[in-house]
Design brief:
globular; mainly alpha
């Protein structure tokens, strides 16, 4: 009986974390998918409404350096509840907000919620799985699931002439359910494994040093995040305006992207778990797949080829490449894992902040060029991971 209770306890904890990441998948694309309705609500241009997305990046920029540290000193349950409450405010209030300034304030909370969730989820799932990264890989799957479900729900609402705000309130309802489950979990259950002996970073044998690998992977954290956010931000509008796809087909392309992302997560999970291919080589393969998928998307004029391109891009760029890059960075720097993780996602947050502002500025007249510019970012990623593959190969000799 005691074992059954323990198993139930350990199932509830990952359940609430994964459900929160499904909602986070909603949060990552909901503004881009409803930008037309929101621009009318806020009485602003498409570029103005798009800039609100940057507020999530602002929240993450502020919160990541702080909350990562706090998760080691405060109750993880409190941080998870805080994340849920901030997301609840975001989803509940944003669709009835009529001013751009207030929309930015509310959306910043989503960035705080994102950082708080990451600060709790990664260490907790790592402990639950006794040091295995399989639980953390599934985070990406849950985000992709949320990103895949949202366009389907939105298209259904549009076809039924139902107010778009119900999409936000659906997420709010999921959060209410999740918070009620979290309330039944004891705070001590968030700490499955007691902390190991803390290494003093000031000791002579543990010194922080910047090197070319760290610098390049900080850039990779920025550019890999840029690729995903840029694509999800503009792919629907690009095919709707530039390629004259129907509203339904334009939105459904995001679902093909998300299905590709889920497929990529599954493949990476299987390959890394069985050690069939070295992770450094896997990064090169994902970078090449990203370029191929993106090229197909840009050259597509029909639904079939666009769907294939979006699927391949999602599988390569959003199937765990960001997490795999972090694993490569941490492989040789275990003593600075926390610091490097914070820096890595901090640079990703900079991309999350800058991308909507920069691309939104050019989107009105150069939407096609904005999509083509992604090839340059994908090429930069390929160069970084090729360098890493040769560097790792040289060290193993």
């Amino acid at each position: 009986m005691k074992n059954i209770k323990n198993n139930t306890r350990y199932l509830r904890l990952p359940l609430v974390i994964y459900l929160m990441y499904i909602v986070q998948g909603f949060a990552l694309i909901i503004l881009a998918q409803t930008v037309q309705q929101l621009s009318m609500l806020w009485q602003t241009s498409i570029a103005g409404a798009t800039a609100v997305v940057s507020a999530i990046g602002i929240g993450k920029l502020i919160a990541y350096p702080i909350l990562g540290e706090l998760s080691d000193h405060l109750s993880r349950k409190k941080l998870l509840v805080l994340s849920g409450l901030m997301y609840l405010i975001f989803f509940s209030i944003l669709p009835v907000t009529h001013t751009l300034f207030f929309a930015v304030v509310i959306t910043t909370l989503a960035g705080f919620a994102n950082a708080a969730l990451d600060a709790v989820a990664y260490p907790t799932l790592l402990e639950i799985n006794h040091g295995k990264s399989s639980g953390n890989v599934l985070i990406k799957a849950m985000i992709s699931l949320g990103e895949g479900l949202l366009p389907i729900v939105l298209v259904t609402l549009i076809n039924q002439s139902i107010w778009f705000g119900w999409l936000f309130w659906l997420a709010a309802g999921l959060l209410v359910i999740n918070l009620s489950i979290i309330s039944t979990i004891a705070p001590k259950n968030f700490y499955i494994i007691k902390s190991a002996t803390i290494v003093k970073l000031g000791s002579p044998d543990v010194r922080w040093q910047w090197d070319i690998t760290k610098i390049l992977f900080m850039i990779y954290g920025f550019s890999a995040m840029w690729l995903m956010i840029h694509f999800t931000q503009w792919i629907t509008r690009y095919f709707s305006i530039v390629q004259s796809f129907s509203t339904t087909n334009s939105h459904l392309l995001m679902s093909f992207y998300s299905m590709g992302s889920l497929t990529g997560v599954g493949l990476l999970f299987l390959i890394t778990n069985q050690r069939w291919v070295r992770e450094a080589i896997l990064l090169v393969i994902t970078a090449l797949g990203t370029i191929v998928g993106l090229t197909i998307v840009i050259m597509s004029h029909g639904m079939l080829s666009a769907s294939i391109g979006c699927f391949l891009f999602g599988m390569s760029a959003a199937g765990g490449a960001l997490q795999l890059g972090l694993s490569q960075l941490l492989a040789g720097n275990a003593k600075f894992a926390g610091r490097l993780t914070g820096l890595y996602f901090f640079f990703g947050s900079i991309a999350f902040f800058l991308m909507p502002i920069i691309t939104g500025y050019f989107a009105t007249k150069h939407l096609a060029g904005i999509m083509v510019s992604l090839l340059a970012v994908a090429g930069l990623n390929l160069g970084i991971v090729i360098f890493n593959a040769y560097h790792v190969r040289g060290k193993s000799r």
